Amino acid sequence: MPELVIAPSVLSMDYTKMLEQIKALEASKAKWIHYDVMDGHFVPNLSFGPDILKQFKKSTDLFLDVHLMVSDPTYFSKVFINAGADLIVFHTEALDNDLSSISKLIEDIHQQGIQAGFSVKPNTPIEPFLPLLKEVDIVLIMSVEPGYGGQSFMPETLEKVRTLSAYRQEHGLNYRIEIDGGINDQTAKEAKAAGVDTLVAGSYVFKNDIEKAVDSLC
Ligand code: DX5
Ligand code: ZN
Question: pTM for this one?
């Protein structure tokens, strides 16, 4: 199992204190920044474009985990790779859950020299995608409907984590299992017990003392 990573979601950052909060993340045990891209189409909300990612890239050496909640991940993966992403995660639903399109995009991202993975919404089953697990660096299980920070964790999504964790062990693979949505000190424990090694947390980290909140997730 890969070592535990905490990936604070900057969607919940106080944008009047960006640099200060990036410094607090650097001083904390967080190793990644989770950067949510929303296009107002795949999800109803809009978030950040590539120029803001470039500013993060300039401001920190933390690993940039880019979560694409967009209808055209093939196009936007290139845009965000050029802006400095270290990892691109896109949604299977945006590619009509089509295995060969998903596989092709994973390969394209890898060819551009960074890590790649896919994500599923709470109502999308994981079983159809098991044959692709040997190709990915990470799988992101959404534990809320994508689109907004601050929602409540859906415990039933942990069943998919258990499936992924068992499959990883059985097949000797080492992809990461990431969870996103409603993570706090309590739900983090449940997620880790189910096999999660990569925890995204937005409101819990940024609405509390950043260093202490990250510590409490470890
Ligand atoms: C939701 C985003 C999440 C969000 C999580 O669509 O993908 O990354 O920032 O926020 P919290 O941790 O507040 O649920
Ligand atoms: Zn996210």
Answer: 0.98
